Amino acid sequence: MDIEAKLSKMDLVLPAPMRAPPGFRINWRQIRVIGNRAAARSAALAILADLKREIGDLDRLISWTRVFGMVNAAPGFVALAPVIDGFTELMIDLFGEEAALCPRAVAGMAELALNSPVILEGEVEIRDAC
Fold first, then answer.
1. 23 in a structural domain
2. Rounded to an integer, what distance in angstroms lies between the CA atom of residue 67 and that of residue 42?
3. Looking at residue 25, what is its pLDDT?
4. Does the residue 46 lie in any domain?
5. Range of the domain at 91
6. Domain containing residue 36: CATH number
7. Residue 60: inside a domain, yes or no?
8. What are the pLDDT digits (tens) for 21-38?
9. Measured between alpha carbons, how far is 39 from 47 in angstroms, rounded to an integer?
10. Half-sphere exposure of residue 11, counting CA atoms within 13 Å on the CB side?
């Protein structure tokens, strides 16, 4: 499948690890692999970069099993799902519909950590390392 070649062909680059602002302590992990599971376009690239650092090869990803998107939204803004579609569409482009389409929930939030526009949480099924 060679996900990284597909990213390159799409002129997309995986970002460097997240850096917190001075004085902000990161006391969580972006990714946790448990057995064969792990935890919107720019956010999708960050997730893929974290996955690559954790599992070594994005081609080990078999499928997305669940995605939850939080959107920093003003009261009355109801077009939340199309915001998260940026994530889903990229995953379809990279992994195909069978692997990318999964149960998904989206919620609007009054505020998100670090003033993020979008926060995504997901689970993936991964194959064992060779």
1. no
2. 15
3. 83
4. yes
5. 3-16+30-126
6. 3.30.1330.40
7. yes
8. 899 888 877 777 766 658
9. 9
10. 0
The Cα–Cα gap between 101 and 55 comes to: 21
- What is the band of 88 on the pLDDT scale with cuts at 50, 70, 90? very high
**What is the side-by-side strand order in the sheet with 61-72?**
33-34, 37-38, 118-126, 61-72, 104-109
**Which residues lie below 8 Å from residue 53, measured CB to CB, with a gap of 6+?**
17, 31
Cα 91–92–97 angle (5° rounding)?
130
**Model pTM score:** 0.84
Query: What DSSP letter does each residue of 4-65 carry, written as one string?
Result: HHHHHHTT--PPPPP-PPTT----S-S--EETTEE--HHHHHHHHHHHHHHHS-GGGEEEEE
End-to-end CA distance of the chain: 15
Put residue 12 in one of left, alpha, beta given phi > 0 → left and psi -120 to 50 → alpha. beta
Q: What is the distance between the alpha carbons of residues 13 and 35, in angstroms, rounded to a whole number?
A: 28
